[in-house]
Amino acid sequence: MSQQIVQRRSRGFICVNAHPEGCRRNVERQIAAIAARAQPPRAGINSVLVIGASTGYGLASRIAAAWGFGAKTLGVCLERDPDGNKTASAGFYNTAALHDFARKDGLFAETINADAFSDDAKRRVAEIARKEIGKIDLIIYSVAAPKRTDPKSGKAHSSVLKPVGSAYTNKTVDLDSEKVTEITISPASEAEIADTVTVMGGEDWKIWLDMLAAENLLAENVRALAYSYIGPAMTWPIYRDGTIGAAKKHLEQTAHGLDEMLDNQLGGEARIAVNKAIVTQASAAIPVVPLYMSVLFRVMKQKNIDEGALEQMRRLFFDFLAEGATPKFDEAGRIRLDDREMRADVQKEVSALWPNVTTENLRDLTDFAGFQHQFRALFGFEVEGIDYSVPVETQLSW
Question: Is 239 a catalytic residue?
Answer without folding.
Answer: yes
